[in-house]
Amino acid sequence: MQRSLFLLMVMGQCSFLACHQYHFIEDKKTWHDAQKYCREKYTELATVYDMEDVRRLQNAAKNQTEAWIGLRNAIDGNKTWHWSLPGVEFKENETNWGPEEPNDEGSNENYGVISKDRSWIDISRTKKHPFMCYDDRPNAQEKFILVKEDMYWTEAQEYCRQNHTDLVSGLKQLNDPKVISLLENATESCCWLFGLFRDTWRWSDGSQSSFRNWDHHPNREDCAMTTLNGESKWKSDNCSSPKPFFCYDEEVVLIKENKTWEDALYYCREHHYDLVSITGPDQQRMVQERAKRADSPFVWVGLGYTCTLDFWFWVTDEVVDYKNWASGGKIDECDMSGAVDRGGQQEWFSKNDSMEFNFICWV
Fold first, then answer.
1. Which structural domain, as residue segments, surrounds residue 50?
2. Are residues 281 and 263 in the same domain?
3. Which of 34, 272, 297, 304 is close enough to 361 for a disulfide, judged by CB 3.0 to 4.6 Å?
4. pTM for this structure?
């Protein structure tokens, strides 16, 4: 089938504004009973991916004070390193620790600072340092900002989120020439806080979301709740305490069958709604979580290319404004469609649409 004709057949569908739908449940239950209820009635206790999700929870439960979310302290106590910026995945083989670091002195060094030579050091939450923010807002004058005021790590994170986007996170940002220049020319401090932290908290649905919105630092209790006033900060509480809670519904599903792009499209439309579209960071993070579980090296999404009209399109009719192409991964040729890689950073690649991969559908 010619792509120009196929394009006319697949466009004209509705668009999606959210990747998951939250449901506020007023009945007060313990955390474990809330988890059981969500798994029976919906999908799971709520996973939260970013500040936009925080605002969605707040709007879904107006005039309420607090509610359980799906975050719980791991029983095994194993600590895992994360990046503060949502969607940036920490990888053990992509680090730059200084000599004999991380040494976890006193078993409580759970945050990172970066030195002028760009090596990393782990520190405790009681240490104050200046810090580096990242800003990807459309009106941002600078993408990387050194803030010379000393703060605790959680205070620095809150400052960056309120005034910019987040703490600088991930090797891609840390290796940016602007960041390197800022560190080399900085004379105010030996070390700067950046977006590296570790904890023992895990999401009920197994998601790897690193987003946290704690009110300073969680106490010794094992289950997380969100407050629903002001900044909707999170606190930990006794899991047996009855509270209202948030569930969520899946709006996408990974199909672990290998099909061509066109067969995947028809499958999604016959059994669900459509091949998934990625029109912003929220959808990208949602697709990332599913792509990691795939059985094939790539996963089809609803991104097609028409060589007759010479442009990429989403089958759900959204404009391809948001982009996450891998370096060298975009090939503008006939018979190409878009796929997300299972490994790496789950970036986009052009693949011949006769190849067979797993795929992700809107439900």
1. 21-76+209-249
2. yes
3. 272
4. 0.74
